[in-house]
Amino acid sequence: MINFIQNRKKKNKSRFFLVLVFLLLLLSAYYLYSLNTPVSSSPDLKSFGVTSGQGSTEISRQLKQQGFIRSPLVFQFYVWTQGISSKLKTGEYFLSQNLSSQEIAEILFKGPGKTKEKRLTFIEGWTLNDFANYLENQGMVKSQDFWPAVQQKASYWDQYEFLAAKPKNLDLEGYLFPDTYRIYSDTTAEEIVKKMLDNLGAKLTDDILSEIKRQGKTVHEILTLASILEKEVSTDSDRKLVADIFYKRLAADIALQADSTVNYASGKSVSRASAGDLKIDSPYNTYKYRGLPPGPICNPGLSAIMAAIYPTPNSYYYFLTTPEGKVIYSQTYDEHVAAKNKYY
Description:
Layout: H1 2-36, E1 45-50, H2 56-65, H3 72-81, E2 91-96, H4 101-110, E3 117-121, H5 128-137, H6 143-151, E4 180-184, H7 189-203, H8 206-214, H9 219-232, H10 236-251, H11 259-266, H12 302-309, E5 318-321, E6 327-330, H13 333-343
Antiparallel strand pairs: 1-2, 3-4, 5-6
Helix pairs in contact: 2-3, 5-6, 9-10, 9-12, 10-12
């Protein structure tokens, strides 16, 4: 009987220990998730102020109320373990919801004067005009300061080999690599442009540049086609297929007939160009003029660039995108017309 009781106690202790371990693991997982996972992916900056006399408890509550952190308790525990709970600096900060609680704690510890970095996200397919508006809306640089940095050739442009084939009369449309950047709030437009050019240079490796040269193409031609692919179709596989279609049409001296290039000329953003738009007399109107347009129509991402370099061979000469986003391929013009009648 005594042995039975002792065994029962041992089993209860073991169960209690297992439950305790499970709860600790669960609590640890919650802590790490809340500490390292941002509230959202939004890069938009919002003002957050820390006033004199505020402690970490009140600061964490305000951070939660304004949507910057997931858990005030996790934030308080982290700053306590780091020994900075009483060292959060007063001042005005500009924070975004794509910062983790840990990152925000470090920013508040360093103070507004030492952490002026902003996280800015530039989307694939944005034009220079989109970039200019975004930077101004984020309070970084005024649009009037951005345009000279991308339109007027600067001496540092010569250090970028991939700019060599760009016609001198064109701006940097297509050459500013869309990505997420950490940029100081007092950064100039020229410094932002250099950061984006550096990023594109890092993506265009020696192997990629050698392959472009081997194909008898230039970086400018690749970026021009990639920018069209970026606007026309959305998946990696479709971009590679459409790239081959465009290359075949170029070789056969058939007009590309890309609505996205017409939109660039008209300033519109529609899925299908109107009959009036198709008559626009612009070298970017690929219905009216054969061959590639003079330059990129947007700033393409890596997927579109790689598709332009490594297309997937196929037997199609035509394609269209349905209102639902599905890409329909055709081998002949008659098949293409039938597809148009079916989906539009």
